[in-house]
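Summarise this fold before class:
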Amino acid sequence: MSAPLVGVYPGTFDPITNGHRDIIGRACKVADRLVIAVARNAGKGPLFSIDERVEMVRDEIAAMDTHGAEVQVRAFDNLLIDFCHEVGASLLIRGLRAVSDFEYEFQMAAMNARLDSRVETVFLMASERQQFISSRFVKEIGRLGGDISSFVSLPVAERLRDRFDVEQRSGGDDRRRQTFKDEI
């Protein structure tokens, strides 16, 4: 009997989108155990705290068909290869949406292979219906009052609306809003 194949799917998941769910579902067909690694990544100025993001991902996974794979959700803030070692992963799952993602992902895969050639990177293309979805655009559309219901689940959409309502009532966080606009 061979050892279970353990994969890691890393991301900021701020928030988790239907595109992320698509990749997770397909990664569960490849790995026996999938660890969804939620990056703390304070440099990106996340809208949600690490605890909120982990909770959202766990809630989304609970409603998914994981095709028999064991799925865990964990926060991390160390080198991704070190995190892979911690969880016993030999597979690194990366999602690709568009050609523009490829160069960055290609460089990351090469760097990770240099750090540890035993951890293999696998690219999964987002399905046609999910290719254009990004957390950044979902947040911007939601912040401006647009309909995000086809990009995220209902519970995630509600969390976003609640967060934006709080921002509007309090006058908003101008620094976060400016940082977000600078990303676009």
About this structure: DSSP finds seven helices and five strands in the chain. Confidence is low (pLDDT under 50) at residues 173-184. Strands lie at 6-11, 33-39, 70-76, 91-96, 120-125.
